[in-house]
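Entry for the shared binder. Reason: the reviewer on the internal report wants the predicted structure included alongside the sequence.
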Amino acid sequence: MFLGVVIIFITSCKREYLDPVPQTSIVDITAFDTPARILNQVNSLYQGFKSGTFMGGRGQIAGDIRGEDFINETTNLVTGADVWMLNPTGTSQNFVKNLWAQAYFAINLCNLFIDGMAAKGTSVVGAALSNNYLGEARFLRAVSYYMLLQHYARPYADGAGNKPGLPLRLTGIKDPGFSDLARSTVAEVYTQILADLNFAEANLPLTNPGLLSTSRAHRNSAIAFKTRVYLTMQNYAAVITEANKIVPALPPFVATSGVPHALQADIVNVFRSPYNTTESIFSTSMTTTAGDNPGTQNQLGFYWSRTTGGGEFSLNATTGIVTDPGWTAADRRRSFNAVVSGKLYLNTKYNAPSPFIDWAPVIRWSEVLLNLAEARARTNVGVDGQALLLLNAVRQRSDPAVILAPATQAALIAAILTERRIEFLGEGLRNIDLMRLLQTIPAKGSAPSKTPADAGYIWPISADEMSLNKLMTDN
């Protein structure tokens, strides 16, 4: 059911006629009757979002295997060989169809929750807590729409968002027959994303206790994600405005309010239990409980690790970022990489074996610092001083002996883009960075390059959406 709760229909002895509301379940009409039930609905939002087919793994994986830093080792369509080759079709079940379906399922959960809170929930928990919860729902909806845009729509830079975007569904769908909706423009979808994030910023709690500081959204989660959204839109002034709310002018760059986000002394600790360092702004959490982890062939560790996973993709040791001469052997981030069976893999960034309970990162503090660095570098002539400090803060955390000193504005921007490839290798940002700048997706191995004008630069629309939505148009 769309609300993410289980309905148990009792059929023996026609019991349903005696007990029209099943006593072992929560149905639509009672889902918002008590504070505990409402909190269960909030938890269900995260459960839908962190599915292995979406932001528990494949959402990030798709962002990396489209780029040039990984080589496909298995030619397995189930694990994205067609995505890596840049030729998936609308009938591609395992990425194109499943990611679309799960993202819209997560969006619909948010919409149903927002509708339910308006109808009853707010009166049950009070306005303040209601707004906290609604902030979480709108944050998750915003991230979901953003991720869909990165694969199924033209980049914002192509026509300032005037190209076809997504069906912008903002009310909950409970029954079949309500699928027809035309595509809004890319700009219109971004407008809604930012409206949701602005609401979230204004209404989310400043902090969350314990592990929830990373696994549930708080105010800085919304601010941080806005820096990514505005960077994707090439609105560099807005990136600076948002980042300045929480990033100080000088090192050590500890967040000035809310959760005290900071770079960890050792990057390896960011990817190890308990996964809630102050660097991890928002991640999808996993446990060993059945159904509370992505499952085989979905999780980041399964794709990247040859030792504890399937090793579906090795690192491109010919033209990938691992060949960059400036990425020194002493850099701590090199410790994630290892030669196994004669090939180089991103072997230990995610190293928990099956059932693969590594938390999947959505956004980290180092990204906020580099987002701000790039925005300042592109805005200010010459070598911007704060941008250089931010860049070196990220580099020297993992390689203290190196001081980056680009001599020109262009060299500074190039250094920041390189740092992003190193820092976020295996975290799903490479495709986003290529497309936001309308760059060609480079060739790798047997996969050809794709220019922004080529078919396959973005994914086709899911065949399921095309068959159900009579107003939908394909890419």
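Summary line for the report: Residues 93-125 form the longest helix (33 residues).
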